[in-house]
Amino acid sequence: VDFKQYKNMVGAFHQPRMVYMNLKTLDTLPPVEFACGMGEVLKSALIRDKSYYQWLLAQAARIEAREFPILTEMIVRCCKIKRQVVEEDPKEQGVRAILNFGHTIGHAVEKLKDFQLLHGQCVAVGTIAAGKISLDRGLLSPEEFSLIERGNDLFHLPKSIQGLKAEDILAATKKDKKMAGGKIRFILLHGIGNACIDTSLAKEEILAGIAYILEKDAEK
């Protein structure tokens, strides 16, 4: 449950007996909501499965057309990734934190925008910032970073935001539940499909990633 504009602050761990999905409900979603869902799908592929990410980009037209067999395959593969991660770390003591890729900055943007931007849009922008930090650290190649940006383009997700200051976004990240020992537990990519947890980022590195998603507005 969100609390005082902070994301997912109240809750309990309770494993489901089963998960049921009626994929026909996707036909009822407006395009912007479908795109937001794709933000989380892209994130799942980026953290664990490079071939799945490449498949998503290759199948973008059919996914956008909401072809049922393609959506079925897409969601099954996405759920398998989350299941594997959660089974490895049910109570987020370690590796489960990789599911938060793009969320540290994304949640900060969501809060500062007073939830005027949808969650999936904020996560999408957050993945660009985290990808840029990974690129600057030499963990991600320029070609891979371009693929991350292409994913947002193909699925109509933002790559930049307007009206916020980098320092304000950084300050908001420090109030996130993902803090560990007073340091931000940041999720980076050591190549597409290989997420890693990092608590050593300097303020300047995070600000550079945030600045990247702000600079684009000035260029337009």
What does this structure look like?
The protein has helices at residues 31-48, 50-58, 60-64, 68-88, 103-112, 119-136, 142-154, 166-173, 203-219; strands spanning 179-180, 183-184, 186-189, 195-198. By secondary structure, the chain is mainly alpha-helical. Strands 1-2 form a two-stranded antiparallel sheet. Strands 3-4 form a two-stranded antiparallel sheet. A hairpin with a 5-residue loop joins strand 3 (186-189) and strand 4. The longest helix is centred in the middle third of the chain and has 21 residues, at 68-88. The radius of gyration is 17 Å and the shape is globular. The termini are far apart. The mean pLDDT is 91.
Low-confidence stretches: none
Beta-sheet strand percentage? 5-15%
Number of helices: 9
Strands ordered across the widest β-sheet: 1-2
- Share of helical residues: 40-55%
Averaging pLDDT over every residue, what do you get? 91
Topology, please?
Elements: H1 31-48, H2 50-58, H3 60-64, H4 68-88, H5 103-112, H6 119-136, H7 142-154, H8 166-173, E1 179-180, E2 183-184, E3 186-189, E4 195-198, H9 203-219
Antiparallel strand pairs: 1-2, 3-4
Helix pairs in contact: 1-2, 1-4, 1-6, 5-6, 5-8, 6-7, 6-9, 8-9
